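Write out the 3D structure for:
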Amino acid sequence: MSESPPDDRASRARADTLTQLLETHDEPAVLIDADYSIVAMNGAYAAAYGRAGDDLRGMKCHRISHHSEVPCHERGEDCPVKRVMRDGRPVETLHIHFHDDETPERVQVKGFPVDVGGRRLLLERVRRLEPDEPLQSDDGEELLGSSPAMLAALQRLIQAAGLSGSVLIQGESGVGKELAARFVHRRSSRSGGPFVTADCTAIPETLFESELFGHERGAFTGSAQRRIGLFESASDGTLFLDEIGELPMTMQAKLLRAIESGEIRRLGSTQTLRTRVRIVAATNRDLRAMVAAGQFRLDLYYRLATHEVTLPPLRDRTQDIAPICRHLLTRFGLNPPPVVTAGALARLARYTWPGNVRELRNVLERTLAHGPLIDEAAVDRQLSEPHAQVIGSPLLPTMTPPPATGMTIVDSAWPMADARQGRPPDPDGLPGAAHAESAALDDVRHRLLIEQLERHRGNRARVAESLGVSERTVYRWIRRYKVVDGGGNP
């Protein structure tokens, strides 16, 4: 048997040394060359995207983590390999990666240029994002979810953001179309420019040209000064046309001309202005059906739908409800922190959510108005109320206590774990609450009970109503925690 050439042995020795260095990282880490080939990786990377013990060296990174035959930049994504090789600077980006069994996950990728043997390599570190970890949070608004339906939509948004052309975002009311539009803007080459919103339902037909293209002083009665239109305001950035399906046909024609030519003229002006604006439009209507019915221009549809993304309704991604609830309740900033039971989450998952995430937020807010304990009965009362179908954003009551960052959610995994380990359910109907691992819930319940008894001067019926539980449960809690109920009775 012939020995390997010295160069091959030296190359393998370097790769082994690099692999040992990568093992110092707990998270998946990989070294990639300019040809997208994996030079070395640690065990965490191999276990995440192959099988434990697999040697992925020499394979293309895009085939391993993206299951794609072409590099991710050719599909419109932000490619760390291309950027590091071109610029020689660290990069950070969001990707959707796929495990060996095709399971998708959201990841944050950090890439660093390293020099090995006179050639530049990419050191890529991969951090898996939690289901309720926001993708953007600088303005307090986030896209959330790790269900297959949501990850598929996110993948399309990421690809659309990296390419040119207009984007059409479709989906039911309340699914987060404006958040998706902002997501596209921030990940696009125009992220340094403005993001301007035009609500097509709120622009009267008589003022359409003035709103979008602006006007000069004296252009019409009441125009006392020059006005810059939304197209000019969004120059070098993104113009978001919300509810584009509500635009009348006459206004569609004027919008089409501006998009096709990139030129506008303020009312009352003879000067033509060129604008560099990317259009992102959103609608909850079926534009193709509207085209077939003669209610929407086919040429405008094609101009808007260079990239088409449909956001899934909440009923098609019920596994995202728990992390969305966790995130929303944290955003409310209540003290004591809200408590959600497994029964409440199960009830929320059974509901059809015609108003989607917006409606979920409203249900949580209305439930919290009766106390910080959210159980199945409290949720059921809100969903059976006539206002459960009304989509709005009511404020929390003015009696809201000072903000806090904590929160307790008793999710559905707890009672199942109790059953597997032979532990009986909690006598109050809150699974696992009596056991050591749920001491936090006991502490919250104890403090809630004292607070509500003081507020209602020992009236157990009112305490029960405010907490969303039965009066009998309140009595059991008083006995368990040896609380004086306001009337001197333990």
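The longest strand covers residues 104-116.
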